[in-house]
Amino acid sequence: MATRTAIYSKILQKSSNFGTRSMSSWWSHVEPAPKDPILGVTEAFLADTSPEKVNVGVGAYRDDNGKPVVLECVREAERRIAGNQNMEYLPMGGSVKMVDETLKLAYGENSDLIKEKRIAAVQALSGTGACRLFADFQKRFRPESQIYIPVPTWSNHHNIWRDAQVPQRTFHYYHPETKGLDFASLIDDVKNAPNGSFFLLHACAHNPTGVDPTEEQWKEISYQMKVKGHFPFFDMAYQGFASGDPERDAKSIRIFLEDGHLIGCAQSYAKNMGLYGQRVGCLSVLCDDEKQAVAVKSQLQQIARPMYSNPPVHGALMVSTILSSPDLKELWLKEVKVMADRIIGMRTALKENLEKLGSPLSWEHITEQIGMFCYSGMTPEQVDRLRSEYHIYMTRNGRISMAGVTTGNVGYLANAINEVTKSA
Description:
- The protein has helices at 2-25, 39-47, 72-81, 96-107, 112-115, 126-141, 155-163, 183-192, 215-228, 246-249, 251-258, 290-308, 314-324, 326-356, 364-368, 380-390, 410-421, and strands at residues 54-55, 119-125, 147-151, 168-172, 174-175, 180-181, 198-202, 231-236, 264-268, 280-286, 373-375, 392-393, 399-401.
- The protein is of the alpha/beta class and 424 residues long.
- It starts with a helix and ends with a helix.
């Protein structure tokens, strides 16, 4: 018995020593991840002690005092739902009411596609989650496909399709010399892509450039994609936030629907309702018929199940309350227009201030672009000078978040931009 006990003790000791050695070395090869190019800007801004510092890197709306905003329609929705709901799980597909109201914004209030139940749709974790669900769906059911992504695009798009293991290609979009759309090259890329390719399109307020195709250009893009049998996937993160009119901002999608495309669409309420931290979004996929839509939705739910099981309830309740209540929806439409108009006004003010300073450069693109971001055309080196000499923070690609521009800092910002670009 003693011998057995001794042997057992030695085995335990060896096992313990082995376990200690193994566990201590399991993660020793893990290196720190590179900083996110957008979130890193905010970190640097917060660490700066200068009273003159300005953050025009953040992708969130600010009022004219530079403060975060909670919409009054959101506050009222919170009051109405407070204490009236239980905390049970939502279905895997999320809030049916929220999804139904969201589809009306993208596809039209009286859309026949909705009436015919041809749209497979699920609640998603904002626009990012909607994109990721679709990327995984694409990989699972079109494993031979690839995704064409515009140059440039929101940096996280590349991460999303990469981690879903979908091969990526790019297509021309922005023209650095004109600071506008490289339409001819875009169309060439659409024509030259293999038939049946997937294309990622920004429905409105392109991030980061603020450059959108005109209505006629959208019609041509739609036509050429139809000829090639491509699948358009729209990321619509700024509906209503671009022009102040949600209907106008959905025009690109409506053009594709009129041309008979089957489409995918990611929608988000982060920007247009200010629900950044609630992570409320929707993924929809237009199908041939109701039977196909049922099958597609079931598969989207199956993809969501091991990711997060089911989406959160509070934000979805606020969205469905706002959109289904005529008085709150009317208030939301007014408030989203106020946000869009303030940003449009700051574009005009920044351009006028630069012109008054006698800048030798053309700044017409500031007001020709639309949405939260202005693609300034500044070089990474000029952006670095803005940070080191003027305590102005933005991403190194020269993207200015117009939401961070106020009547109080627009003059200072214009002067700094003028100083770092006048010798360009």
